Amino acid sequence: MSIFKRKKKVPVEESADTRQLKAVPQLNPPPEKKELARKDRSLYKTKVEDYRYSKSADDLLQEFSKYDPDVSTGIWNFLRMAGSGLTVLALDEKGIPNQAYQESLDAILKRFSGVERFAEWGIPNTLELTADSIIKYILLRGACGLELVLNKDKTAKYLSIVDPISITFEQPKAGVYVPYQGEKKVGLPTFFWQLLDADANSPYETPPFLPVIQAVLFNIAVMQDLERVVKRTAYPRISVKIIEATLRKFAPVAAQTDDKIMSEWLKSQRESIGESLRTLKPEDAAVFFDSLDVNVLETKSNSTIDFRPLKEVIDQRIISGMKSLPTILGRQFGSSQTIGGVEALLYTKSVVSLQRVSEHLLSRVLTLALRLEGVAGTVAVKYKPVNLRPENELEAFKGLKQARILEQLALGIITDEEAAIELTGNPYLPKDYVPLSGTGFYKNSSDPSKALNTRNPTAEESVGNGRGDSRR
Question: For 432-440, what is the mean pLDDT?
Answer without folding.
Answer: 90
